[in-house]
């Protein structure tokens, strides 16, 4: 019983010590400083300006404002990056589309130029020189490119070109074509050769 009473007295004396040694002197010092400031004619607004002009103190007071400004800047930059990424994706898509259109145009140009240079059935007698030029063009092309062009030509024109090419070159071109189309051309080429032999 005496121990608990002693403990209560110690706790009370601790609070009294805090009150009389820390709280009361702090209040007295604050009141005394305000009194001196008032007597010296220091204005509260000027005091705030003075605090703002002190380097580390001003930064300590403004850290929340700076943090908010920085967060806004980061968010704005992230939105800008997102918009730029979307623009880049759209431009890549447009580039791919333009590439495919360009490839289609190249094939069309090659097909049209081949059609113009191949002799027609009516010009066979006088067009031997241009037919030789066309055949030499196909000889100079890669097998894959020649196969792509021949695949677009009408069958009779493709057969005429294949019949004039060297057999190794013709075989290499047929290898690059789809199997069904190559089989049809090979069958027609065989019939074509049979007709020419019969005509002789």
TrEMBL record:
Record key words, sorted: Cell projection, Cilium, Coiled coil, Flagellum, Membrane, Transmembrane, Transmembrane helix
Presence of keyword Secreted: no
Coiled coil residues, start to end: 74-115
Domain Magnesium transporter MgtE intracellular: 136-190
Keyword hit for Cytoplasm: no
Transmembrane segments: 15-36
Top-rank taxon: Bacteria
Signal sequence range: none
SUPFAM superfamilies per UniProt: MgtE N-terminal domain-like
Designated name of the protein: Flagellar protein FlbB
